[in-house]
Amino acid sequence: MSTRRDELTAEQTAEAERIYEELRRGSEEELRKIARLLASKPDSQLFGETEHQVRDLVHEVGAKAMRTAAEGRKKRGT
Question: I need a labelling partner for 50 at 20 to 30 A (CA). Which of 14, 22, 61, 74 fits?
Fold first, then answer.
């Protein structure tokens, strides 16, 4: 059964919530680093090197999201 991207089954909604909660708790350090990095830069330095540093931290959060989803599925045997 195919669903639109924004429509989830009850099971998918529960899984999305589980992933979100684990990701929220597990990404606080990266989010704090992003906030501190951005707060430390003047307007003239927000892009360029700072932008790349933010992207690296966001990629770390994305990698955690992928691991969280995969580990949850592995535990359930799907």
Answer: 22
